[in-house]
Amino acid sequence: MHKVAALIVGSLVLVSFLSGCISEKEEVPTIVIGSKPFNEQYILAHMIALLLENNGYKAEVKEGLGGTLVNYEALKKGQIHIYVEYTGTAYNNILKLDPPENWDPDYVYEKSKEEMLSRDGILTVVKLGFRDDYAIAVKKEFAEKNGLQKLSDLAPYAPKMVLGTDPEFATRPDGLPRIKEVYGFTFGDVKQMEPTLMYEAIKNDQVDAISAYTTDARVDLFDLKILEDDKGALPPYDAVILVKKDFADKYPEIIEILKKLEGLIDTNTMRLLNYKYDVEKKDAREIAKEFLVEKGLISG
């Protein structure tokens, strides 16, 4: 009789313990991941969601939630829990810090990380490994013919070249004016146009160079060469994962899961993933899944 009673009591204790564990797990909310309205943001948001789901969490992606400030404010207010930002954007657009003499990537990363935490309680928990920078691109054929690898190499040719650029890059202080200031050359002519038209323009020899993004799939599609910003004239845009500090403190195990993405994606890889989305028209979640399976982070 005593053995039966002990067994019943023991069973009740075990059930109570397991119920407690289950209820604790259930207390973790559905993790909401925000994203800006463009290709790589969709892919990265789904990558984060899949990684969390593979570890037993519920996740929801808010595709194209809004621009920088919409996502950042949503994060501050707890309307989303995670999103991917870029250090140069945080430095310039969110924090509105004074531009340094030289856009050293490590300085911009550390300064933006420090200021977001002190001002808003926002933690930078993962540096993904790639940068989505503004850049100057030329045809590979032209670059090979003239030995062009970096922006400094462009100086003798720029006065005779036509640059196609979006209006923002043409006028913003940290864009084309900054290149002129740091490198000391000016393009012979500058044609402002929509980004979608720039690639057709260089393909058809209507312009000789264009402003581009380093992770843009069209760089490969149109057989272009990104010239290295060897003097650090333009801001660096390292991709980082942001969360609120109180969220990280409450769910440290989630932060450990996110850290599996640390340094995992270089610029060429991100460009390839964007190519699959923009050119091959694959679904963002499927692209993210293929990548994570290939890296052994989730099961197929």
Automatic annotation (TrEMBL):
Task: List the GO molecular function terms.
Answer: transmembrane transporter activity
Q: What is this protein called?
A: Glycine/betaine ABC transporter substrate-binding protein
CDD domains on file: PBP2_AfProX_like
A GO CC annotation given for this chain? ATP-binding cassette (ABC) transporter complex
Gene3D superfamilies according to UniProt: Osmoprotection protein (prox), domain 2 (3.40.190.120), Periplasmic binding protein-like II (3.40.190.10)
**Domain ABC-type glycine betaine transport system substrate-binding, chain residue ranges per copy:** 30-292
Query: Known InterPro entries for this protein?
Result: ABC_Gly_betaine_transp_sub-bd, PBP2_ProX-like
Coiled coil regions, renumbered to chain: none
Database matches in Pfam families: OpuAC
Q: Which organism is it from?
A: Thermococcus argininiproducens
